[in-house]
Amino acid sequence: MHSLAKRSSIGLLAPVFLLLLASGPANAQLPSASAVGNEVTSDFKYLVNNTVLDAEDVFSSPLSVASPDSALRSPRFYLVLAGAGAIFGGSFALDQTMRSHLRSMSGSDADLLQNVSYGSVSAATALLYGYGLWKNDDRARHYALTAGVGAGIATLVDVGIKAAFGRLRPSQSSSHTAFFDGGQSFVSGDVTPMFALAAGVSEYYNNRWYVAVPVYSLALLDGFGRMGAEPVAGLLDERAFGTDG
How many Å apart are CA 218 and CA 226, to the nearest integer? Predict the structure, then answer.
């Protein structure tokens, strides 16, 4: 079953890899070891500097709430917030319905969905970085690195949200409103980093539909697999909140 998942991931990633190759110059040569070393060193500096700047933005953001450029003054901010709220509300309402349809999923099928999701999205991000090294494309490497940082931050934030809401898993309670009871269900700690990685790949291609739809669909497979997996099965709104993040 695991070998089937690997073959499926490779097949799904082939178009992405071909797209990466086609987007570069046809006469590109293989980079030398020293050139690759210089690029990796440069990327490490970029990663450190970008992380420091992001941290500064997070801690200084309350000071810019009243700024004319504040996100709170942008109508788009409220549209996005309303859209995220609608997605979460709708998924919360459909929790029990989706659970009743997916609870009969076999363990092997649930594992297959999760393995395809993990393998394909992670490999797509790694391929994007590798492409950046091969073609000396700083932008590709930076998007891949930023996606990795985003996945790491999402994982840390998930830990805090789980502790704050304490929601029980479906195997621990028949109610999907069992919050603040010491659980570790809300939000999904698996889907959120997968979507962060998928966002990096999609953003590199300016969210063109022929990249965004496949890569986000692959990330979403993990959510369906987790909803059908026992005893760690989750609910739809946990996955939706993870994708909103």
Answer: 13
Alpha-carbon distance of 243 to 91, in angstroms, equals 12
Mean residue pLDDT across the chain:
74
Dig out the tokens for 102 from the structure.
Answer: 């997916």
Mean pLDDT, rounded, for 53-65? 76
Residue 20 has pLDDT above 70, yes or no: no
What does the H/E/C string look like for 134-169?
HCCCHHHHHHHHHHHHHHHHHHHHHHHHHHHHCCCC
Q: How confident is the model at residue 220 (pLDDT cuts 50, 70, 90)?
A: confident
Closest residue by Cα to residue 148 from 188, 212, 191, 200: 200
Contacts of 198 (CB under 8 A, 6+ apart): 121, 124, 147, 215, 216, 218, 219
Spatial distance between the Cα atoms of 92 and 95, rounded to a whole number of angstroms: 5
Distance in angstroms (rounded) separating the CA atoms of residues 43 and 133: 10
Residue pair 150/40 in contact (Cβ under 8 Å)? The answer is no
Helix H or strand E encompassing 106: none
Report the distance separating Cα 62 and Cα 59, nearest Å.
7
Q: What's the Cα-to-Cα distance from 93 to each of 86, 177, 216, rounded to whole Å? A: 11, 11, 23
- Distance separating alpha carbons of residues 123 and 115, to the nearest angstrom: 12
pTM for the structure as a whole: 0.69
Rg, Å, the chain Cα set = 20
CB atoms within 10 A of CB 163: 10
Rounded CA separation 122/153 (Å): 16
